[in-house]
Give the backbone structure.
Amino acid sequence: MNVANETIQSDNSLEKTNETILEVKDIFKDFSGVTVLSNVNIKFKKGKVHAIVGENGAGKTTLMKIISGFLKPTSGYIYFENKEVQLSPDIAKKLGIILIPQELNTVDTLTVYDNIFLGDEKTKSLILDKKLMIKLAKNYLKELKVDYISPTSLMGSLTPSQKQMVEITKAVHKNARVIIMDEPTAFLTEKETESLFEVINYLKSQNITVIYISHKLSEIFVISDFVTVLRDGQVITTGKMSDFSEKDIVRAMVGRSIDQVFPEKKQLLSREPVLRIENLSVKNTIVNNVSFELYKGEILGFYGLIGSGRTEVAEAIIGLRQKVEGKIFLGNKLLNIKSPLDAQKNGIVYLPEDRKTSGIIETMKVYENITLQNLGKYTHLNFFVNKSKEKSTANSYKKELNISLNSPDQIVQTLSGGNQQKIVFAKLLDVNPKIFILDEPTRGIDVGAKQQIYLLIKNIVDNGGSCIFISSELPEIVGMCNRVIVMREGEIAGIVENSKISEENIAYLAISRKVA
Amino acid sequence: MNNEELNLPKTAFKFDYSKYMLIFVLLALVIVSGILSPSFLKVQNILDIIWQSSYVGIIAVGVTFVMIAGGIDLSVGSLTALLGAIAITSINIMGGSTLSMLLTILITIAAGLIMGFGMGMLIVKGKVAPFIATLAGLAIYRSLVLNFANGGEYVAIPSDFSIMGMGSFAGLPIPMIVFIIFSIIAQIILSDTKFGRYVYAVGANEKTALYSAIKIGKIKILTYMISGLSVAITAILLSSMMSSVSSSTTGLNYELMALEAAVIGGTSLSGGKGTIWGTFVGAIILGVINNMLVMLNVAVYLQGAFQGFIIIIAVLLQNIGKK
């Protein structure tokens, strides 16, 4: 206690505005034996904006969940105004620590004022005092200079930016002291981002601390006072924003040693385009004017931050999303693909990003999953299925892809993530396609299985196939690809080739400012 | 990887109690009924039970396809009355010749398939939730029959018409033979054809089915057409047996009984799971319970309550099997 008092005094004597409101000390967090955060120490100052940056999977979200009480650290301390606290969501809320998640938790079927007063309704003898709530809500919105939002509008009719403003308004009037914003500009336009910054400046003037999580360097340099870079669950560097350059931050974010072993890259002897995309824009997405070519035998990387439009491009190619504009050529043939079946008929298959919901059918048997995409091959008269033929195919894929399973009759749910992913690969290979679009093919599987998947991809191109390899993990993009297309905010930010392929070059393209 | 292999046998070689539970339940019911009422076990009574179970049973088989594909069909009861009315109108117009009976069968089946197709299109292309679309069907079909019959009955004039519903072959009532053959064909389609596999895939994980280049809309529409077909078959057999269709009571509550039979038989309301043989046994279990209640002179009004309890017990037993 004495020590704490001294700290306060010394802080006070130094500079009033440099007071620490929240401190995390020696934080460790394990998820079933996997370390996600280790030895994290950060001090957040009163009335300042503190940016937390890092790659996908660096541990930012886990840290924010700990600070807002939704997760307990495995070990470590949290101090609020120099007092140690054990956080739960309720306690964090009482202290005024409020998380505004990327996917907002608003009730879209209620009005704006209902949302602002949710859980804290004003009543007049048991009856909701709507007049009072509308009046108060109007004032609150005015304070934040967002009174273009009407308190009586339906929440569902607002834009993502307006919803966010309502959430911030609500936070301010629940006596927020620390507001955590997780990727707040992910769904905002440039103009909306500017008005968000105005609101953040208002919050600062009210002595509220903002913890600002973002990938976008251009933004954090404009808005932040302090910055902390996380990588692989550790604090790499922390300090005043003005002490860093954009290059410093990028290096701190990605500068790690590559310890995964990738198969040797095959040099492309000729550049024979097998797939050509011209001026693709996708309906209801940010994907705009994307053009590129995929060469025969190539592994073409697709890198970009979450929300940059990589998956949307892939889904448009296989006919799951409508094109606003654009042409797709297979060799010189113009394609008109309206469904995954059309794509498959043209030799294009897609491995979806989310294995569990889109890649496998968990409750069905291994052989049923493997033959699902090309079941016609296993039928008499295109009607009766020949199960023994299906099972022998499953057995041959078991050997070829080294799938660990007891029998083809096994339910897929009982297999590990890596083996499930191999089953999805088997399903696609069985179609015998020319072009594979692989969306995060190594997500959520262990290192050993990853290596086998890399070999499998190498095998595909060695046998004359071509791959589009979408990934959020820079090391595998660098280790596997002949060329890398970097996407940013729905557009191609650049294409990196051969010796230029490095984590720094790619990350720089993905997050640096848009050149006007 | 080794750990994984060691863990597997637990799930891979587990005895599947829920698969045989149904037979145990049926046997237990038969034994209890036999003790409570000796006349229950007479051959004629057993045949009667299966016969009476056939009408709802055939529909339940059709509805099982819809449910495995992740849908539901509440319109089958009202559709039975509507298609029955169509059958009787057709026979009355064309007379009692063999040819006109054949034509009547064809017309009724075609009508059932068309209604099923329409319902499927509404659900797939119109994106109306299956529960809502078929609930509307339940109201609309019944109301149409009531209106056409002015609340009364359709009566078949040619007396030969009753041969399909009342006739028998090798000592077995025709509806029962149709029920058994229809079930066998349905089971083969479900477990041994490409279409059957797709029905399970669409119900178990629609998104994966979509990414796997399956035409999920077509599969769903076909399941509603099978449901329509099954209703047409029951409508023919039922209107023939009674030589009439009551606009107010024919097919009443069949949608609930068909659902009950399927659920007792292990079909999941959330899709992806179920078998025809399960539904078949489920329909007969319902028949046994009804027969027992009649023989024991249980008030007619309470029979619904018993059915309700049975369905709850069936689901509880299946849940225990899961753990």
Residues 1-16 of chain A have pLDDT under 50 and may be disordered.
